[in-house]
Write a structure and sequence with these properties.
The complex is a heterodimer. Chain A is mostly helical. Chain A has one domain: ABC transporter involved in vitamin B12 uptake, BtuC (Orthogonal Bundle). Helix content of chain A is about 80%, strand content about 0%. Chain A has helices spanning about 10-35, 40-60, 60-85, 90-110, 115-120, 130-150, 150-160, 160-165, 170-195, 200-210, 215-240, 245-265. Chain B is an alpha/beta fold. Chain B has a single domain (about 5-90, about 150-240), classed as Rossmann fold. Chain B is built from eight helices and ten strands. In chain B, the strands form two sheets. Chain B has a six-stranded mixed sheet, with helices on both faces. In chain B, helix 2 packs parallel to helix 4. The longest helix of chain B has 18 residues, at about 220-240. Chain B is globular, with a radius of gyration of 18 Å. Classes of the chains: A mainly alpha, B alpha/beta. The interface between A and B is medium-sized, with 23 and 30 residues.
Chain lengths: ~270, ~240
């Protein structure tokens, strides 16, 4: 197998979408990881499973219903968590299981549509259409612009909520905005790695980058680089060896994390 | 004298206890007020009310003659240094990143370097915040509070868990901010000696306001100091 694979248009679409999703997940994920919300992406992804099943049942394009259901349930669970003082990890567990439960019941009612569900569970980046690619690029662009504009209040409220409040940052609104953006990011990324492995893209490159970077922007850039590397190499390797891209991408990013830990414990990287 | 802060009949009730009972006092512009009182005296509750973090109080609080429940604009003129800033130890932000959070406008970027130099932490500017000692971190948080040119600086027991050398440096910085830059300072502390040396006004809080006035008056009156110490000790014992 040579560089020929780089000439296929489906590969162009896969790589372009993959790189956009890699950037998006690493940026949004960095804020989630630092807010101790690492598994929130996972919970949204599982709730999107319910949304996908709903779309397939209703005959609507499943990603649209997934966007609706995921974002709505993420915002609702956040509201409930604040109102009834439920801890973050418990609320994630509630969101995660209710999404799967809804999905399972709907699949049962409809008599099952296993083939479509399988691609949503594990991703299908090589099948991404031109329309999907445009949508992924547009959403990535919009979310990155919003983050750039609101960078300071988002970072400040992530760093210390109370101090951000005293400085006049509308902390609650920023929290909901992050949840909203996380919802969009997760559903957009389902096509790359599927529902089950989404939190890997959110968490692993960021955990790795935090070990290298000093400042925030440096850490974000390192995380994006690791993320893009994992996605691009993962897509190419998986095609060459005919294995699943999602698993390959995640394993490469785990490899980068393990390598970083090795470097760090050998003392080559200064301890933070 | 122009009023910077006016606290009027503030009462805060928790289910089983009154945290603050009818507390009133005025802070004039340029004052250096030390608020003293034992643990559980309501110092932090009072600060939360002043900072807009607690709005469930009776009475009124005015900053620059504006009721703070009506407008949050006063926060722009205020710098706040918390007791012990809580953040993830490996949070990837440098000293410069943290100070930048205090800025209101992008254009004031070179103010960061200026303030870091003033507080003797310029050489730390690219270090990650979690790597610094408690004293250094505290100075970074003062820099963050000062970078926006506040008119009032509020500090909540800011030297908890910090070594003596850093405390001395910290106090000399506060003195300079008040005397040279005319920043009004409201500072809560356990340390009566330090308050005696630095503050020109004292408020003794023990859920009610025990004394408020010039610090000279308070500290030159042995009876008053003794009475205060006993009262707060009793309250302390009672509390436990």
């Amino acid at each position: 197998m040579s560089l020929e694979i780089l000439t296929f248009s489906f590969m162009h679409r896969a790589l372009i979408s993959g790189i956009a999703i890699a950037i998006l997940c690493s940026v949004v994920g960095l804020f989630l990881v630092l807010r101790r919300y690492s598994l929130f992406g996972d919970a949204i992804a599982h709730s999107s499973f319910g949304g996908i099943a709903l779309g397939l049942l209703a005959g609507v394009y499943p990603l649209w219903t997934a966007y609706g259901v995921s974002i709505a349930s993420a915002l609702i669970i956040t509201k409930i968590k604040d109102r009834y003082n439920i801890s973050g990890d418990a609320s994630i567990a509630v969101l995660l299981s209710s999404g799967i439960a809804v999905g399972l019941v709907i699949i049962g009612l409809s008599g099952g549509f296993t083939i479509d569900i399988f691609s949503f569970l594990f991703g299908s980046i090589l099948l991404v259409s031109v329309d999907d690619t445009i949508l992924i690029l547009a959403l990535t662009g919009v979310i990155l612009i919003v983050i750039l504009i609101l960078f300071r209040p988002i970072l400040y409220s992530t760093f210390n909520e109370e101090q951000a409040k005293v400085s006049g940052v509308p902390v609650e609104k920023i929290n909901y905005l992050i949840i909203f953006m996380a919802g969009i990011t997760v559903v957009t990324s389902i096509q790359l790695v599927g529902v089950l492995l989404i939190s890997a893209l959110f968490v692993i490159p960021n955990v790795t980058a935090i070990m290298y970077g000093k400042g925030f922007k440096q850490t974000a850039i390192i995380s994006m680089s690791f993320s893009i590397f994992s996605v691009v190499i993962g897509i190419l390797i998986s095609y060459i060896f005919d294995i699943t891209p999602a698993g390959t991408i995640v394993l490469i990013s785990i490899g980068l994390l393990a390598g970083t830990m090795g470097i760090k414990s050998s003392g080559l990287l200064s301890k933070n | 004298m122009l009023k910077a802060v006016e606290i009027n009949n503030i009462t805060v009730k928790y289910p089983d206890v009154k945290a603050l009972d009818n507390v009133s006092f005025v802070v004039n512009k340029g004052d250096f007020l030390g608020i003293i009182g034992p643990n559980g005296a309501g110092k932090s509750t009072l600060f939360d009310c002043m900072l807009g973090l607690n709005t469930k109080y009776k009475g009124t609080i005015k900053f620059f003659d504006q009721n703070i429940k009506k407008s949050k604009n006063y926060l722009k003129k205020l710098g706040y240094v918390p007791q012990k800033p809580i953040f993830e130890k490996n949070f990837p932000v440098t000293v410069t990143d943290v100070v930048r959070m205090g800025l209101k406008k992008e254009s004031d970027e070179n103010k960061i370097d200026e303030i870091l130099q003033q507080l003797w932490i310029h050489e730390l500017r690219d270090r990650r915040i979690g790597e610094l000692s408690g004293g250094q971190q505290q100075r970074v948080f003062i820099a963050k509070a000062l970078v926006n040119n506040p008119k009032i600086l509020i500090l909540d027991e800011p030297v908890t868990g910090i070594d003596q050398q850093s405390i001395d440096l910290f106090y000399s910085i506060l003195r300079e901010l008040n005397s040279k830059q005319k920043i009004t300072i409201i500072w809560s502390s356990h340390d009566l000696d330090a308050v005696n040396q630095l503050a020109n006004h004292v408020a003794c809080l023990n859920r009610t306001l025990f004394f408020h006035g010039e610090s000279e008056k308070f500290f030159s009156d042995d009876k008053l100091v003794k009475q205060y110490s006993e009262a707060s000790m009793q309250e302390h014992m009672h509390h436990h």
